[in-house]
Design a protein that fits this description.
A 5-stranded mixed barrel has the order 1-2-3-5-4. The protein is of the alpha+beta class and 223 residues long. The chain is globular, with a radius of gyration of 23 Å. A hairpin with a 2-residue loop joins strand 4 and strand 5. The longest helix is centred in the N-terminal third of the chain and has 25 residues. It has 3 domains: 48 residues; 77 residues, Copper binding periplasmic protein CusF (OB fold (Dihydrolipoamide Acetyltransferase, E2P)); 87 residues, Copper binding periplasmic protein CusF (OB fold (Dihydrolipoamide Acetyltransferase, E2P)), CATH 2.40.50.320.
Length: 223
C-alpha cells in the first residue's frame, strides 16, 4: 500500500509548467484525475483484506468503563480503548458474556486493534485473578516450529522477530480459538498466529498457561 501512496503523492507533486499555457491542460488534468481515482480504488481494494496495525494483547485490571470506552491498568500504565461493534466478551469460565457484565477491578486479557490512531477492543477475556501475577507474560506471535518428540513449540513474537520463545505445553494449558471455543493442542499448526500467556519465571522453556489461536485471522491474511 505504501507504494501506491508514494506513487500518488509523487504524481501530485510533479510540476506542470509545460501545461500551464497549453491547450492540452484540461486533458492533462483528466489524466491526473484518472490516476488519482485508480489509486483510490486500489487502496480501497487493499483495505478489504489489510489491517493497518496488528492486534495487540494487554493483561491488566479494568479501572473505568464509560459509554463506549474502557480503561485498564497494565504494568502501571493506564490505557484507553474504544469498544468495537463486533467485540467478543468471554467470562472467566470461557463462556460468552455481555459488555454490561464487565466490572471495574476485574482482571482481563484485552485484545485490541489500532486503526486511524484509535485503539479498538476486539476481544476481552475475564481472567482468573489467582493466575495473574508478576511472572506472567502475554505475547502475540507466530508458531515457528512444533516439536514432534516433546510438548514444546517455538514462538516468534511479532514485535521482535529476531527473538524466539520456547513454550512448553501441558495438561493444564487452556487452548481457545478466535471465537473463545475450546480447542486441542493438536489444532495448533506451524505458521499460525497465537496469543500466548505463559509463566516467565521458568527459563529457558516457559510453561504455557493459555493459548488463543488466531487461525481465522492468519488464514485471511495469507489469502
Amino acid at each position: 500500500m505504501k507504494i501506491f501512496i508514494a506513487l500518488y503523492l509523487l504524481i501530485l507533486a510533479l510540476p506542470l509548467p509545460a501545461f500551464a499555457q497549453s491547450p492540452t491542460t484540461s486533458k492533462s488534468q483528466e489524466i491526473l484525475d484518472l490516476v488519482e481515482q485508480k489509486v483510490k480504488e486500489k487502496l480501497d481494494q487493499l483495505g478489504q483484506n489489510y489491517t493497518p496495525n496488528p492486534k495487540k494483547a494487554y493483561l491488566g485490571a479494568i479501572t473505568d468503563i464509560k459509554d463506549n470506552k474502557i480503561k485498564i491498568d497494565t504494568k502501571g500504565q493506564t490505557m484507553e480503548f474504544v469498544f468495537a461493534d463486533n467485540t467478543v466478551f468471554i467470562g472467566s469460565k470461557q463462556n460468552k458474556i455481555k459488555k454490561e457484565d464487565l466490572k471495574v477491578g476485574q482482571d482481563v486479557l484485552l485484545i485490541s486493534l489500532t486503526q486511524d490512531t484509535i485503539a479498538y477492543t476486539k476481544r476481552i477475556i475475564v481472567a482468573d485473578p489467582k493466575k495473574i501475577e508478576n511472572h506472567k507474560s502475554v505475547t502475540l506471535g507466530q508458531i515457528a516450529d512444533i516439536s514432534q518428540t516433546s510438548p514444546v513449540l517455538v514462538l516468534i513474537p511479532l514485535n521482535n522477530k529476531n527473538h524466539e520463545l520456547q513454550i512448553k505445553l501441558s495438561a493444564d494449558t487452556i487452548y481457545l480459538d478466535d471465537s473463545g471455543k475450546k480447542i486441542k493442542s493438536t489444532d495448533l499448526k506451524k505458521g499460525q498466529k497465537i496469543i500466548c500467556i505463559y509463566d516467565n519465571s521458568s527459563s529457558p522453556t516457559f510453561p504455557a498457561i493459555q493459548i488463543i489461536s488466531l487461525l481465522k485471522q492468519s488464514a485471511t491474511a495469507n489469502n
